[in-house]
Specification:
InterPro entries: DUF3280. The chain has about 170 residues and is α+β, with helices and mostly antiparallel strands. It is built from seven helices and four strands; from the N terminus they run ααβααααβββα.
């Protein structure tokens, strides 16, 4: 009983939001280093996907996201690398973000300063989750990484989600 009381007092003494209040801000990104943008993978874990397979509109949205991320990184002064030297490996990989280090191997092979990879998971036609991760090479230390849940499976909602990540966690606060 005394232990539980001491823990309650300790937790009550912590300032509200302490975990975020003392969190360090992300350091600025080195825009001189080339970025290997491995694209955006799509994971369809919805019942719809299991029954009907890939949808053309969602495939087109992946290209829309890739173009938006690439456009924004270039606009922010980054150089995106030519992926031709790793094209065969990238083609054979369903999801570079979950390939047991193949993303880092490709980044090292290219001589990248950063590896950038994204992922969209469709839970249902209403609920989707979007991730964008930037890894610093050669160790693969994550220097940026953010996830956002979006509602609605439209071009507008996908773009709003990726722009939120880019504006608020990559470039908007530096």
């Amino acid at each position: 009983m005394l232990r539980r009381f001491a823990l309650t007092v300790l937790l009550a003494a912590l300032p509200f939001g302490a975990a975020q209040a003392g969190a360090p801000e992300s350091p600025p990104l080195d825009r001189k280093g080339p970025v290997a943008f491995l694209g955006v993978a799509f994971l369809d874990t919805s019942t719809e996907g299991a029954y009907f397979g890939a949808r053309d509109d969602e495939t087109a949205r992946l290209a829309l996201l890739r173009d938006e991320v690439a456009r924004r990184f270039r606009a922010e002064g980054f150089t995106l690398m030519d992926l031709t030297p790793v094209a065969a490996e990238l083609e054979a990989t369903l999801n570079p973000a979950k390939c047991y280090g193949c993303d880092l191997r490709m980044g090292r092979k290219l001589g990248a300063a950063y590896v950038l990879e994204g992922e969209v998971q469709k839970v249902s036609n209403l609920i989707l989750s979007m991730n964008l991760v930037l890894l610093e090479m050669p160790e693969g230390r994550m220097v940026r990484g953010r996830s956002v849940d979006i509602r609605s499976n439209t071009d507008e909602s996908w773009l709003r989600g990726i722009r939120y990540i880019l504006d608020n966690h990559y470039f908007g606060k530096e």
